[in-house]
């Protein structure tokens, strides 16, 4: 595999401090990126028994860089068993090497073993993307991908729109530019070319709109809102490279206002910053950096700014985006974050992912953009904009068939690229109780055959979120012990916009909220209602209460009911018996007409004046309110004691 300039620069993050120690012959080759020669020398040391644990990791990295993934995986595994030096970054490379040799069972075993120590978001991201890539549900976007004619035999990468021109980074030689030994190229510089009608970049030349430097200038971004170019550059003092106490030269982020002021925005002698991106809507400056408290190698961060002035400490984008690997090249387009990552569950080395912005600063599961844009090699630095009836974009790759180490590729497409997914979110609530949230409810998505595609649990406030590969039709189901069951069939059309996911709130009723104890038995909880005197007609007021019974049966379809109606002692007992039977039958008919199955109503009984609740028996003088206490209808749940066994 051709060595990407991206990796040469990133590797400096993890080796520069070690490079100051006493070197062996293998070390010298390793730090010159002569990996094949390093392997020979390290293997000699290993046979002699003089290979240190750090050098054994270097040997594993060298095998990894030369595509000898089987040997790399064995060495990473040995280091993992010792568990002395291996951090998250090398853990990711170990899983990558297992994946490259098709040993996904070993990957699954490691993830299961370390599941308690790994971020839950990482495990969800891995499961989802592997399922997505295996399901091949992307649909066939008609990509027109082309290698730029302006690419050189050296490294060309990190494209950025600059009005009707394109900025990019390159290691192509210049007479006045110094050589950067690790890459065997010139120090990186920023170039600019005009975007032609077909997307080709024409007349690429060094960009003169930023201060001259003999050292790195790279990964530009033009902000129209700031009318400024942001880019990274080598730390220097008085025109010469500046080093920290460990001998490391890092990269800073600078801003050059067009025809205006130059300003360093982020600079630290021990920390390198990469790929600035400014989001005008929020004032956030996104970037990649290798802070010690990150999740892996380089992570994505942002800072708040005011007209280019840094106004906050860096904020990590969190474990939904950042992984044990390297994340770089943030780019925001139409409420989605595009970035690149070499996390172990991708298609190759560095892959391009897309994640949607959600409420409260959250992100959806990052989705691999899939074949075409991504390959088995390094793909990174993705940008895109609307152009005519479609989209025009660019990205970098060191895939086979290119002109140089890294090439810039253009693409045209009718719609945004990426494997299609369905994101569902919402809240599980009690619909009758001011939408109080229901915590720890199981929310599932089922396919057409009833197989579970995904299951999650609502949080303490009842919120849930899940994402699955695209399906035209799914069933959303939610359950919780002693609650009703929610089931809804959902159908999706191609091309639906779901920037923040489809919002579906779920109503779950708690059985114990809907029943109560009355007269020694469990009955459906209803407000008391009265029939007109001497009549069995269902009035609107009665219908309102009986509709609650209809809903109760819909929510708990296993219930077995008995309808009981009583009257007071006034009138003849035979007449009262007939009247209450008519009233119970009228209630039953109403419920049946409203769709309650006959199998749910086992009995409808009129009891006349058999159960007087007070002392208002025949001949007793009572106030009307006391007589009304005896006029009642109850919907008794006969199988209450076995409903949830």
Written description of the protein model:
The protein has 645 residues and is of the alpha+beta class. Helix 3 runs antiparallel to helix 4, helix 4 (53-65) runs antiparallel to helix 5 (69-82) and helix 5 packs antiparallel against helix 6 (88-100). Mean pLDDT is 88; it is low at 12-20.
SSE map:
Layout: H1 5-15, H2 25-31, H3 35-48, H4 53-65, H5 69-82, H6 88-100, H7 104-113, H8 120-135, E1 144-147, E2 156-162, E3 165-170, E4 179-180, E5 185-186, E6 189-195, E7 201-206, E8 217-223, E9 228-234, E10 236-237, E11 240-241, E12 251-257, E13 262-266, E14 273-279, E15 284-289, E16 299-306, E17 309-310, E18 315-316, E19 327-333, E20 336-341, E21 351-356, E22 367-368, E23 379-387, E24 390-397, E25 407-413, E26 421-430, E27 436-437, E28 442-446, E29 452-457, E30 463-469, E31 473-479, E32 486-491, E33 502-503, E34 506-507, H9 511-514, E35 515-518, E36 521-524, H10 540-555, E37 561-566, H11 573-593, E38 601-606, H12 624-628, E39 632-637
Parallel strand pairs: 26-33, 26-34, 37-38
Antiparallel strand pairs: 1-25, 2-3, 3-6, 4-5, 6-7, 8-9, 9-12, 10-11, 12-13, 14-15, 15-16, 16-17, 16-18, 19-20, 20-21, 21-22, 23-24, 24-25, 26-27, 26-30, 28-29, 28-31, 31-32, 35-36, 37-39
Distance between the termini: 61 Å
Low-confidence stretches: 12-20
Query: What's the Cα radius of gyration?
Result: 35 Å
Question: What oligomeric state is this?
Answer: single chain
Structural class call reads: alpha+beta
In total, the number of strands is: 39
């Amino acid at each position: 595999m051709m060595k990407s300039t991206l990796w040469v620069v990133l590797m400096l993050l993890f080796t520069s401090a070690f490079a100051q120690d006493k070197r062996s012959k293998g070390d010298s080759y390793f730090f010159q990126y002569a990996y094949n020669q390093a392997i020979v020398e390290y293997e000699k040391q290993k046979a002699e028994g003089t290979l240190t644990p750090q050098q054994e990791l270097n040997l594993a990295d060298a095998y990894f860089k030369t595509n000898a993934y089987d040997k790399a995986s064995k060495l990473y595994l040995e280091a993992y068993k010792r568990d002395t030096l291996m951090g998250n970054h090398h853990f990711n490379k170990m899983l990558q090497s297992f994946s490259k040799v098709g040993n996904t069972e070993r990957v699954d075993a490691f993830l299961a073993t370390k599941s308690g120590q790994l971020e839950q978001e990482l495990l969800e991201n891995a499961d989802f993307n592997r399922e997505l890539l295996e399901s091949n549900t992307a649909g066939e976007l008609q990509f027109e991908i082309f290698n730029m004619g302006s690419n050189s035999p050296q490294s060309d990468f990190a494209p950025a729109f600059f009005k009707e021109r394109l900025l990019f980074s390159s290691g192509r030689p210049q007479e006045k530019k110094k050589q950067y030994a690790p890459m065997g190229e010139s120090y990186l510089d920023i170039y600019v070319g005009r975007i032609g009608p077909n997307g080709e970049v024409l007349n690429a030349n060094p960009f003169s709109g930023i201060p001259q430097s003999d050292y790195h200038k790279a990964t530009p971004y033009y902000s129209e809102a700031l009318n400024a170019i942001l880019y990274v550059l080598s730390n220097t003092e008085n025109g010469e490279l500046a080093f920290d106490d460990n001998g490391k030269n890092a990269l800073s982020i600078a801003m050059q206002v067009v025809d205006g002021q130059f300003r360093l925005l982020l600079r630290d002698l021990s920390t390198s910053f990469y790929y600035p991106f400014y989001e005008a809507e929020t004032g956030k400056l996104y970037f990649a950096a290798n802070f010690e408290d990150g999740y892996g190698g380089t992570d994505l961060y942002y800072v708040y700014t005011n007209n280019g002035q840094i106004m906050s400490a860096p904020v990590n984008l969190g474990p939904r985006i950042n992984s044990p690997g390297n994340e770089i090249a943030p780019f925001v387009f139409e409420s989605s974050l595009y970035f690149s990552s070499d996390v172990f569950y991708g298609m190759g080395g560095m892959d391009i992912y897309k994640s949607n912005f959600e409420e409260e600063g959250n992100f959806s599961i990052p989705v691999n953009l899939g074949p075409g844009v991504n390959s088995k090699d390094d793909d990174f630095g993705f940008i895109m904009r609307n152009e005519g009836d479609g989209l025009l974009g660019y990205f970098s790759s060191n895939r086979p068939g290119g002109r140089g180490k890294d090439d810039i590729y253009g693409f045209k497409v009718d719609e945004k690229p990426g494997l299609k997914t369905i994101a569902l979110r919402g809240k599980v609530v009690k619909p009758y109780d001011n939408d109080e949230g229901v915590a720890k409810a199981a929310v599932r998505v089922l396919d057409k055959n009833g197989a579970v595609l995904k299951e999650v649990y609502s949080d303490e406030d009842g919120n849930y979120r899940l994402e699955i590969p695209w399906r035209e039709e799914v069933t959303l189901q939610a359950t919780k012990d002693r609650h009703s069951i929610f089931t809804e069939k959902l159908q999706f059309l191609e091309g639906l916009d779901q920037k923040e996911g489809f919002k579906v709130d779920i109503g779950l009723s708690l059985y114990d909220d809907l029943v109560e104890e009355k007269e020694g038995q469990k009955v459906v909880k209803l407000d008391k209602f009265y029939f007109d005197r001497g009549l069995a007609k269902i009035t609107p007021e009665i219908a309102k209460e009986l509709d609650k019974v209809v809903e109760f049966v819909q929510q708990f379809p296993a219930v077995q009911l008995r309808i009981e109606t009583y009257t007071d002692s006034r009138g003849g007992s035979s007449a009262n018996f007939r009247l209450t039977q008519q009233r119970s039958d009228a209630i039953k008919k109403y419920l049946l007409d409203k769709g309650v199955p006959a199998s749910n109503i086992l009995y409808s009984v009129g009891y006349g004046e058999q159960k007087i609740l007070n002392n208002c028996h025949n001949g007793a003088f009572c106030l009307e309110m006391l007589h009304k206490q005896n006029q009642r209808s109850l919907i008794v749940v006969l199988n209450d004691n076995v409903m949830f066994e």
